[in-house]
Design brief:
Bound molecules: adenosine-5'-triphosphate
CATH class of one domain: Alpha Beta
Number of helices: 12
Largest sheet: 6 strands, mixed
CATH topology of one domain: Rossmann fold
Order of helices and strands: HEEEHHEEHEHHHEHEHEEHHH
Distance between the termini: 28 Å
CATH superfamily of one domain: P-loop containing nucleotide triphosphate hydrolases
Length: 264
């Protein structure tokens, strides 16, 4: 650990976050955790556990908390989600979204421009960067994702895995320091999945990865949180948590095959 407090301060912190959807459905209860710079954390849990809901809060996609503001405290001081110290209040969202890149589970929720190139350029253009800087970032990401050959194609003419890479290219072109990834490996074939894992491994941003792919979490993450019924039920080292059969069964999770067959 460094003695410089700014180096050790979290890039993202969540403090006692609770959330209920407008129809009254409780989705998150009293969630607290920090993410340190460059840390890669898995988020696992059964269907309906609250994973997507939690990720959506990280860049302010779900405004409105049901936390009471204590007497004498401002909403700002009591805000439960902070990115680099900045509360994720409406007025701060443009700045927050520069810091946090969000990868949706379904690329079609994310892509909307006519060509691959335009989609990758959309985020950097909105950051107000110079044209040269935007062109350079777009070219770098297209090359890194192996998308240069399809840059002028419509995203609708691409495969699912290619569309997912376009989404990641657009996010990384904004150079966020946190990535919120919702099921990054779902619907990818084994080769595309491996390629996607390598891209995440090479990315220096802190990452919160919600996934049912426990092998991916084992390979990529140094920490995992188990979410169930909207609460964090366990938080620790992935191999230790995933070897705990009782805990896993209790929260509707199966032991990863590599652990079951002693390959780790
Ligand atoms: N738009 C919505 N309106 C009302 N309730 C919702 C909405 N979206 C999700 N929920 C509810 O909130 C809870 C958490 O859902 P969420 O999608 O965050 O779970 P999840 O862990 O991501 O699930 P999955 O693994 O199936 O993707 C569930 O009870 C779900 O039914």
């Amino acid at each position: 650990m460094s003695d410089d407090p700014s180096i050790n301060s979290p890039v993202l912190s969540v403090d006692k976050l609770s959330y209920r959807y407008p129809n009254g459905q409780a989705a998150l209860t009293d969630i607290s955790f920090d993410i340190q710079p460059g840390e890669r954390i898995g988020l696992v849990g059964p269907n309906g556990a609250g994973k997507t809901t939690l990720l959506l809060h990280l860049n302010g996609l779900l405004p409105g908390y049901d936390l009471p503001v204590a007497d004498g405290q401002s909403a700002e001081a009591s805000y439960p989600v902070r990115v680099s110290g900045l509360p994720a209040l409406q007025k701060n969202l443009p700045a927050i979204r520069q810091h946090v890149g969000f990868l949706f589970q379904d690329p079609d929720d994310q892509l909307f421009c006519s060509t691959v190139r335009e989609d990758v350029a959309f985020g950097p253009l909105n950051l107000g960067l110079s044209r040269e800087e935007v062109l350079q970032r777009v070219a770098t990401q297209l090359a890194a994702m192996g998308l240069t050959d399809v840059e002028n194609r419509s995203t609708m003419q691409l495969s699912f895995g290619e569309r997912k890479r376009v989404c990641l290219a657009g996010i990384l072109a904004c150079q966020p320091n946190v990535l919120a990834l919702d099921e990054p490996s779902s619907n990818l074939d084994p080769r595309a999945r491996r390629g996607f894992m390598r891209l995440l491994e090479d990315c220096p941003a802190a990452q919160l990865i919600a996934s049912h792919d426990l092998e991916l979490i084992l390979d990529l993450c140094t920490r995992v949180m188990v979410l169930d019924r909207g609460r964090i039920q366990a938080d620790g080292e992935p191999a230790t948590i995933f070897s705990n059969q009782r805990l896993m069964e209790l929260h509707g999770l199966e032991l990863p095959l590599s652990i079951r067959y002693g390959k780790r």
